[in-house]
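Quick check before the chapter quiz. The format below is the same one you will see on the exam, so make sure you can read both the input and the output lines.
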Amino acid sequence: MRLKFSPARLLSQLLILCLVIGVAHQGGAVDCRDLSRSPDRLERLSDFPVLSPSARQSLASGPKAVTTWESRRRQGKPVLALAISSFNLAMKEVETIENYLHYEHRALWNILRARDPNVRVLFVSSDPVPKEAIDHMLESLPPEEGRAVRSRIDFVHVGDRRHVYLTDKILDSPFLQAQILLRGSKLLGEAVSGDNSLLFPYNVTPEVVQMAKKLGVEFVGLSPVLTQLNSKSLNHDVFASTQVPHPKTFAHIKSQTILAGSVWRLFKEDPELQSVFTKTNNGTSGQGIFDVTRKELKAEGYRDDMNRAEAIPIIIRVLRRKEQNDETWDEVMVRSQVDGAVVQEGIPHKRVPSAQLYVHADGRVELLSTHMQKIEDKAYVGSSYPAYPKDPQLQQKLESYAIELARTLADYGVRGRIAFDFFEVSLKGRGKSTPRSDFVVGEANIREGGTTHSWEILNRLLETHHDPNLGVMVSEVTGKPVYYEMTDGYKTPWLETKSTADVFALINTHPVWRRLKFNRETGEGIQLHMTEAIGEFGKVAYTASASTPEKAAALFKSMEAFLRSLK
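Here is the expected output.
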């Protein structure tokens, strides 16, 4: 009897092997680094085996390179953190983000790793980091510590403003690779190697894996054989395997006809449904998302009693008239035919909270934070922390859903950062003791996100720990809880005429700024970030933190008023 050969089945077995031996393994018969490039990609959750107890135990000690790096650090030996935050999401999706290159500078918080006397940090970016931005981040530290941190950090800027991945710029330039290794070696006092250096990327892709290999170091993050779990289709598969409420979704779609038929089916099965969303599998920051409403379909002649064959041409006609960020439906559909897409019911909701977690090597899930997101035109523009400072019941429910989802992903071998976006929905017929809201999970991001930098800056400056009773982090410096509100980019025309240096020169002498700027001793004030986008895009991001949510909100508004008052 001949056994049927299944490439996906073989890949799933190799996946388990690679997770257990670690992606750092290069000397054996299996090169785990190349699995993510296979044409027979693992595209459905059934292709991903759940870890056996023995495999889970093998993973518990963590990747060998990370273990070695941490061991050296604890022994007082110098180690290098390579912060190369290439924004490696689907290029067609991120091309429409106006300040795409500046997103690399979100990761500037990594220089605060050098507060540890044994850690050196080399920050690599396409554009140079303004001196004023570095000064601003470090001036909150005691002067002596600030000087010590400066001696343990260095910067390499590529000087290449092409709208391509930072990883590609480095891979295309042996000179840049040599520069990174030379500057890293100077910081360490010895040659960069897989034992003393780790790469900390924004997310892990085949390009990141290849760059790490070229530099002779290992990376921290999601194993590349699991990257498909970040897709919208596999997000849905994961959600459907849990008890967490999730939208009705049709996934793994690569045909326009099937996509339009899925839109029809959702409207047909729920007469009360008013909107449906189509999403490309790898979209980010609101890119690749189109909504279709029952109202606009009816304006084109759609009837609720239509059959599938009658409805599909109308649905396609409506979709083909749509544009998003200068991108047409036809252009998005070309990507969907390759990467896949989902069709999802629209969820009437009140707010859009999120939760951020970390899965440790042993599979233990740690809740890091929750945020209430600010969404404009389907894109994230800021948030407040925590999500529900005045409603512990809702806060706990949100956290419990996020932990259940994270544990499910951990069962498939996911390690590192995970974030989940939720919809807050109203509950009908609630009693006095019943929460007024529930949550529906929207999507997962197994990488850093839009809330990472604000949280990391305050966490590392204020030396915080999460208090599960308060649902918020508490500072070891002040002994007080930390609340904050942040924007991903306040925009005003006068900033377009200024450089980063101009703005800091103006505000540093201003009495209002001296009152507003962050004070580590109190844990309150304003931290600016992504300041390099000031002159080019006329925008600046900032975080307002305080010991109460009311104070944080007041500081946030005061900063906005201050920026409006400047000329």
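If your answer matched, good. The longest helix spans residues 392-411.
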